[in-house]
């Protein structure tokens, strides 16, 4: 029995440490069977199945009716889309629901029923599944002909509930909303006051020729609000001002005041408030994650101290080094961290570790991930040593950058000279010859660098991998070009042979050469700092991107249900007649601009509209579209989307970007050159300097509240 208990304690410690690594809660069942089920649930296999299931159920919107499987979304030329037969996508949905049912059942069992009733996310998960299955049954009852499917809007919830970081981010956003609402209310007051001033200032007069401002922009309250709201985004500036400004230059003061107060002051104030408030709530979230990590490590210590090797009457509890080694052999963690912890354990040379020593041992998890590059080869030959010194020197890399710049300049010169020539008039001899020369130089440079640095050290640098991959692709394309069309010679002109024409292959080679010029980034310290900030931001933006996907998806489905079929082409659909009729249409309208591909008839097209509406330049046309082709109430949909996407989400993105860049900028002097050591940052590391370590009393109090773990003290 004692041996079985010891195995249980080891397995409990393994799971607690894995919880600490992933910042997971330790409030779950800790018996042998539950621990096995818990590790299986968080295994790569099950998490991969769950992620694939979420991807599939979200992707169904592209296939199910109304299907997005058409070449174009233009209502004038679009052919009828293929729609799957009734039961096909519904069958796939049912399989996904079964996976989700298994997922929520395992989660509910592992945390226990007492914790289940406290977990609002799990209860919402079950309610979402019940509503989705009910709607699925109703859909089959109507033979898939119903126009409204509630379960489509609920699908993003499966993505949201599966990510703890997305939940934390959503909670932070929710906590920031009151402060944002105050500024949004101030914006609404600003907009309302200036709308009333505008309606008084540009009221209708007896002279109809002088009423263009009133006719186009301020005819009534909805039009006035719309015009000034779009002006707040600067999308219709200066168009909205021109009719009045042409009458009297003093009218420009009204529009300048509105733009300065609204755009420069209030919108930027909103950015500042969001940055300040969100940073505070994000810090709290990261502090909570740190507490979870420390709690998991301390829980592992407590169960290991219950092993038979620990004296029962000891005043201070210890854990043997042998028990820690057993745990490290079983735990799934990064090999770098595991090796570092094993080294620290050997350096300590202690048979037993206290709680403080045990916690310090696992602080390796909090450190930056550092990658040291392999050493260069050691040559015995004096000549090879000279070669290694010459071609491994930074100046050789600078020479390569100069050559790459010369390549770009030569391509630009050729493109400028041939810009107005027909394909049949071009002589590609010069372009082909210089491409051949530069690609041979790139190949020689890559081989010499490998000779100087060794293959392993060469490949350890991301810039070299990028450089080498493009060089190999360029070489393959150049060989394929020579094999298909022969070597460059005077009169070398494009001919359509095989998959690509000569000109297509030359263009592809030149695009890759231009792309290859990005190799200069690591050699420019400030640019490298900006790029590494962006790359780290991309890695840490998964939660933000996930929430953006959720919002995009929900708005797209809502737009399809509300506005599907609203866009109807005018009269004859021939290109010639459409172009001719444009002369009779009002300038700047949806019809005159031929925005027919922007419609709500399928999921893909609706997502394109949402993306365009999130950018200021498309707002004015989108509003006109909503007024002319749908109804005035459609403005509410677009205003809500603009507030969420452009005002809230973009400012949150700016907040995280600023925080990430400031963190990098403040620490740039404390680190070695980016070319020697690579550091990988996380959101947790950004706030590490200001995080507070939890006290032992806080940890023990939390552990004693564990619903399934009984401590020996």
TrEMBL record:
A family per Pfam: Ion_trans
Subcellular location(s) of the protein: Late endosome membrane; Lysosome membrane
Molecular functions (GO terms): calcium channel activity; intracellularly phosphatidylinositol-3,5-bisphosphate-gated monatomic cation channel activity; ligand-gated sodium channel activity; voltage-gated channel activity
GO terms (BP aspect): calcium-mediated signaling; endocytosis involved in viral entry into host cell
Catalytic activity: Ca(2+)(in) = Ca(2+)(out); Na(+)(in) = Na(+)(out)
Domain of life the protein comes from: Eukaryota
Domain Ion transport, chain residue ranges per copy: 44-278, 395-661
Parts of the chain that traverse the membrane: 45-63, 92-110, 122-143, 180-202, 253-275, 395-417, 429-448, 469-487, 499-518, 543-563, 636-658
Record membrane topology: Multi-pass membrane protein
GO cellular component: late endosome membrane; lysosomal membrane; monoatomic ion channel complex
Record bears the keyword Transcription: no
Keywords from the named record: Calcium, Calcium channel, Calcium transport, Endosome, Glycoprotein, Ion channel, Ion transport, Lysosome, Membrane, Repeat, Transmembrane, Transmembrane helix, Transport, Voltage-gated channel
Protein family per UniProt: Belongs to the calcium channel alpha-1 subunit (TC 1.A.1.11) family. Two pore calcium channel subfamily.
Protein name (record): Two pore channel protein 2
């Amino acid at each position: 029995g004692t041996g079985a208990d010891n195995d249980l304690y080891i397995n409990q410690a393994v799971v607690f440490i894995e919880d600490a690594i992933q910042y997971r809660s330790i409030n779950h069942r800790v018996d042998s069977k539950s621990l096995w089920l818990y590790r299986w649930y968080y295994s790569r296999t099950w998490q991969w199945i769950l992620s694939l299931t979420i991807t599939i159920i979200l992707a169904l919107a592209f296939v199910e009716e109304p299907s997005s499987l058409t070449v174009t979304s233009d209502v004038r030329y679009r052919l009828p889309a293929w729609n799957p037969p009734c039961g096909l996508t519904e069958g796939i949905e049912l399989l996904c629901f079964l996976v989700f049912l298994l997922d929520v059942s395992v989660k509910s069992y592992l945390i226990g029923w007492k914790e289940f009733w406290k977990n609002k996310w799990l209860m919402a998960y079950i309610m979402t599944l019940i509503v989705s299955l009910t709607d699925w049954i109703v859909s089959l009852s109507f033979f898939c002909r119903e126009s409204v499917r509630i379960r489509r809007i609920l699908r993003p919830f499966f993505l949201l509930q599966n990510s703890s970081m997305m939940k934390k981010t959503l909670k932070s956003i929710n906590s920031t909303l009151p402060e944002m609402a105050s500024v949004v209310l101030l914006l609404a007051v600003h907009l309302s006051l200036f709308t009333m001033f505008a309606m008084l200032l540009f009221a209708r007069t007896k002279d109809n020729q002088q009423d263009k401002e009133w006719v186009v922009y301020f005819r009534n309250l909805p039009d006035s609000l719309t015009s000034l709201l779009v002006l707040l985004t600067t999308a219709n500036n200066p168009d909205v001002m021109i009719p009045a400004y042409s009458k009297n230059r003093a009218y420009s003061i009204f529009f300048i005041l509105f733009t300065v107060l609204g755009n420069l002051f209030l919108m930027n104030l909103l950015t500042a408030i969001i940055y300040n408030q969100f940073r505070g709530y994000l810090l709290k979230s990261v502090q909570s994650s740190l507490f979870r990590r420390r709690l998991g490590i301390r829980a592992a210590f407590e169960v290991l101290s219950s092993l038979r090797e620990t004296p029962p009457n000891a005043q201070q509890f210890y854990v043997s080094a042998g028990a820690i080694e057993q745990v490290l052999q079983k735990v799934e963690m990064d090999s770098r961290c595991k090796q570092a912890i094993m080294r620290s354990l050997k350096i300590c040379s202690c048979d037993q570790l206290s709680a403080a020593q045990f916690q310090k041992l696992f602080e390796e998890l909090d450190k930056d991930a550092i990658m040291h590059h392999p050493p260069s080869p050691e040559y015995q030959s004096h000549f090879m040593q000279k070669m290694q010194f010459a071609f491994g020197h930074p100046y050789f890399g600078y020479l390569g950058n100069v050559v790459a710049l010369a390549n770009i300049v030569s391509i630009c010169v050729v493109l400028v000279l041939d810009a107005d020539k027909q394909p049949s008039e071009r002589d590609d001899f010069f372009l082909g010859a210089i491409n051949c020369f530069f690609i041979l130089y790139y190949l020689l440079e890559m081989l010499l660098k490998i000779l100087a640095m060794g293959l392993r050290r060469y490949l350890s640098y991301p810039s070299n991998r990028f450089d080498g991959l493009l060089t190999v692709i360029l070489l393959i394309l150049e060989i394929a070009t020579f094999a298909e069309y022969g070597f460059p010679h005077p009169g070398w002109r494009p001919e359509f042979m095989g998959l690509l024409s000569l000109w297509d292959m030359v263009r592809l080679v030149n695009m890759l050469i231009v792309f290859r010029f990005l190799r200069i980034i690591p050699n420019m310290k400030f640019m490298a700092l900006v790029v590494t900030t962006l790359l780290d931001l991309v890695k840490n933006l998964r939660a933000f991107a996930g929430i953006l996907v959720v919002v995009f998806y929900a708005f797209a489905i809502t737009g399809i249900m509300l506005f599907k079929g609203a866009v109807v082409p005018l009269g004859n659909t021939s290109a010639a007649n459409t172009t001719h009729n444009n002369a009779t249409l009002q300038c700047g309208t949806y019809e005159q601009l031929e925005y027919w591909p922007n419609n709500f008839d399928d999921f893909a097209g609706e997502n394109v509209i949402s993306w365009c509406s999130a950018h200021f330049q498309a707002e004015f046309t989108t509003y006109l579209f909503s007024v002319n082709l749908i109804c005035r109430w459609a403005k509410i949909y677009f205003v809500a989307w603009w507030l969420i996407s452009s005002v809230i989400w973009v400012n949150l993105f700016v907040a995280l970007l600023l925080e990430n860049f400031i963190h990098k900028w403040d620490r740039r002097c404390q680190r070695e050159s980016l070319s020697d050591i690579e550091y990988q940052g996380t959101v947790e590391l950004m706030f590490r300097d200001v995080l507070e370590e939890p006290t032992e009393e806080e940890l023990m109090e939390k552990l004693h509240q564990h619903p399934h773990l009984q401590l020996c003290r």
